[in-house]
Automatic annotation (TrEMBL):
It comes from the Bacteria. InterPro entries: 6-blade_b-propeller_TolB-like (IPR011042), Strictosidine_synth_cons-reg (IPR018119). This is Strictosidine synthase family protein. SUPFAM superfamilies: Calcium-dependent phosphotriesterase (SSF63829). Residues 116-192 form the Strictosidine synthase conserved region domain. Keywords: Glycoprotein, Phosphoprotein. GO terms for molecular function: hydrolase activity. Belongs to the strictosidine synthase family.
Amino acid sequence: MDRSTALVPLHYVSLRARGPEDVVADPQGRVLTGVEDGRILRVHHPADPRRTRTEVLAETGGRPLGLELLPDGALVVCDAERGLLRVGPHDGTVRVLADAVAGERLRFCSNAVAVPDGTVYFTVSSRRHPVGRWIGDIVEHTGTGRLLRLAPGDREPEVLLEGLQFANGLALSADGSFLVIAETGSCRLTRCRLTGPRAGHAEPFAELPGMPDNLWREGSGGPLWVALASPRVPPLDLLHRTPPAVRRTAARAAVHAPYRPSGTVGVVAVDDRGRTVHRLTRRRSGFRMVTSVCAVGDHLVLGSLWESGMAVCARPAAR
């Protein structure tokens, strides 16, 4: 599916806090997100401006990014400063599940997914650049992203994949046989098989019209929603083909230069064969840098590393 349809905004939900980077919907239709000041928020009735209200679930003391809701209501949180965390479902207690691997501190945990046996898979976007200098990794194109696995009872995670280009969003296939990883720096989705003779191997899954960020699966058999943080940038594609020294110089300049996201935003939905089901785009958008998307009823809720709230948009008709 090459043609895009319009992403139709309906209203804005102010959080009075910057950077709701990931948004996930719970079974009651509430939206959970983490913001720049370290708080985890739960937004009730996000699709109804007259009834919307926000409550604080926890404070991580770091910078929460990707969230994964567990069956008991607890949250797995990828905190870019503190590592992999678990937030209690009732009292908001925060416990560190992992903050290092092989003696190296986890500096940029990005997104996580839990499987039925209690194993948690999660991504690390960069081993060179912290979250505040994320653009340096995108420009430098170092390929230091990782996929890690933390088995139940283990104190330290295991590295499954290395060399990923800014490993970001993560989702499980409907049958549990593979993971889908967003490689932001390469504008693609990658599949890592969990079962069969090729378990642990990575392979291309889908090429995208922009830079993917967080992923969110709608139910057990629904589509996989992909937030596009930016459209493709042709000069950046050319830069990625230059020698490492050139990219390093460009990265040093990029982290100090003023940054403003593109006014073109978009989301796509793909099935478990990597085929595009929906492609939604809005140009000259006032809401910029869409880093996450989830579905609540007849609406899509968008999160952003850049904005101070969430956007609620119309959901496309099922195909």
